[in-house]
Amino acid sequence: MSNTGITQIEIDQRVYDLYDEYCHGKIDRREYLKRAGALAALGIPALAMATSLLPQYAKAQTISFTDPRIKASYVTYPSPGGNGDTMRGYLVQPAGAGPFPSVLIIHENRGLNPYIEDVARRAAAAGFLALAPDGLAPLGGYPGNDDDGRTMQGKLDQAKLRTDMLNGAKWLKAHKLSTGKLGVTGFCWGGGTSNYLAATMGADLQASAPYYGAAAETSKVPNIKAAMLIHFAATDPGVNGTWPAYETALKASGAKFEAHTYAGTQHGFHNNSTPRYDETAAKLSWDRTLEHFKKHLA
Q: With the CA atoms of 70, 150, 7 and 209 taken in that order, what torsion angle do they form, in degrees rounded to the nearest 10?
């Protein structure tokens, strides 16, 4: 997945930790590469490792936008209370007349990049009407690279950004091709937002499958009516630290949930555009996600 040929196993954990800081906007690209280069004094080829972790989106596509099983288009929909009057998203429908159960796909903290669009196509190929909103739409949309996308997303009103995702969920649920049964999945920031939507939408959401996302606000957990399938990376202290209190609240509220931690994985293991990708865990988690949606959106 990289020009250097470096594999996940060969990358030093200290470089992964730096990349995690970079991905979450705590340091910029220059500082990330600078700190990685400084590890070279310890005899670690860290700069090559750091460079290998940067996304290779051209190699990440698994389903072409011309795949005969799907039909993809960009759509706009109203988003009252959001960062703009309207939102833009990537809508992918399965071949056939429908209606179809629907799934909202929520991006990371950098907008609607090619990886997330591919995930939407994967969901549609499995029989779901999929919408992947672009939270950066009010600023002109995903800019074509993650660095600028991350900066742009950080400048948005975060509460309104979540409202934009909520409005996407409502629009998709009411779509003429939707059965009215709705699921949501998301990654990193999108995982946290998947938890948020479960706690916000109540019975209007039937299933949620967050990937390595921050927990829902504890006081709102009793609102969760969706069946929850929660995915964690093994090495992800920031996210995993929110789980004990979340688990306690889910149990106390009688929520239907299951959680899986994938051995040997890093935050971002589902994203097949960087060496953090773990093929075995990504496939297993995605298979579980599709089965979860088939069960609860039928």
A: -50
